[in-house]
Predict the structure.
Amino acid sequence: MKYSAFLVYLVLLPLLGACMQPPLVIGQTRASIAPEDVVIYYAEKPKCNFETIARLQASGGYYSLDSMLRAMRNDAAMLGASGLYVLQTQQLAIKEYLGTAKAIRCLPV
């Protein structure tokens, strides 16, 4: 009995560790949009003039970089951002990632 409880604990522990801290809102939010409509700018700077809506921070417990970016993208979508400008990502250990990004909105030309 104790052995199975220990196995359940080991399986659930990484899931409990995934943490998106509340966004630090510094701009005007808008109505939520679909997460798949948020463009991720990972390797390059956005090619538009933009305003920053919020800073996002994810820490530890994500199994992959994609899962961490998906969580950040969901938060950006809830704020009405059209883009996620990734500032930093770091792999701390196998299957443990953290990162910071800006939820942005491209301004009309």
